[in-house]
Amino acid sequence: MGYAMESDRVKLLLDGRHDDNRGDDERGPDNPIPAFTGETCWSAEAHESGRSACDVAVTSEGVVLDITDGCLSRTGYCRADLLGRPIDTILDSASGAAIREFMQAPGRIHGAIIDAVCICADSSTCRVELTVRCRAETPGVFSIAINGFAAMAECRHRAMLTQVSVDKVSDMIIWLDADGRYVFVNRAATRMFGYSAAEFGRKSVWDVDPLFNEDIWCDHWQDLVKQGVVRIETVNRTKDGVDVPVEVTANLVEYKGKFYNCSIVRDITERRRLEAEWRFLNEKALHLSLTDALTGIGNRRRFDASLDAELKNHSRSRAPLSLILCDVDAFKAFNDRYGHVAGDDCLRQIAGVLSRTVQRSGDLAARFGGEEFACILPATELEGAMRVAEGIRTGIMTLAIPHEESPSAEMVTASLGVLTIRHLDNPPRPEILAAADAYLYKAKNKGRNRVVGGEFMRPESRHGQAGR
Question: Residues with catalytic annotation?
Fold first, then answer.
């Protein structure tokens, strides 16, 4: 005979069969149903692991009469916590009701298998399978074998590892709600910023991040909702008022129907320091690559790059652009007379004159090669460029560096050629340099120690200007 039960949790074991497949006629004084000793009523899990069985003896009303040590160790209860208490103490109410319904059912049903939820002493839960059987030698007493603790132990172990990881990792883990309030921080966050978890719980993100306010937070939250993951770099201020640069990887997380910002926050102070050092070294290397090692002013590479850039600017703006080429007079004779060390010192002093004379922002003084120097003067008319060139010439004479072999004076002098270009589309760099060099050689041919200059304009450009 059987009995129909409404619960989907319960699978009945009918026909009075025990799991050892013996019928009632096979049982007798010599073959009783095993007594509740915790030694013979083993679950499949216990058989596999060799650990104590997880069994409970209860009355038909569900009151706990006895419990094995294996069950106590797995649930975390003491024996005194459970003896005489309802089975609902360690099971959810629905599971307890299903067990009582079976145990109080009319008819002769040997047992049932029930899916249940076990509640441990620490309030953690685990889905388990209960095998409930009536005790033939003790009427009104039922044995409940609890299977599935291995899964619960694994689950609790994973939870423990998760908690330890959260507490031990060096990165900060911070949960914020939709309003920007702190919900959870791990130990790394409290160590870094000096606030306790309780103090964080009374703050909003803009109380810690000086770059945030409520409006910025709302925009950030909307981005997070749309994208799911947002990475930003910002600043968090410690309790002592120290600003710490941080990288924040914000993740949108749903928990129990609410959405949160679960952020992994990383201190990037060291990274910022290394980046600044890298930028400094990179800029230093770039500066060295564009600087003449002997004189400390721009080298030919810098001159060429600057001239190309200024020619493009001239094509767009049509502002005048002037060049100065400077050549030290009879410098080979100077080296032959005074030596190369003196020659190097002479070039350094002349470079100093150029640096002091060409000081306007955007102007450039560079060593063109050997004893030649060059200057680029953007937005400078011919008249202004001639004045600058004359200042360089007189400044070199003021140095009064002796030069007994000079054909033009008893001191070091220089000849300068000045070229100004106007209204050129795509001005040809080689032609412009050649024209400036031509003015320099005019200065040389006229006796050295002088400035000669003029304008450069293509014939077609002049025709175009006349037609406007």
Answer: 371
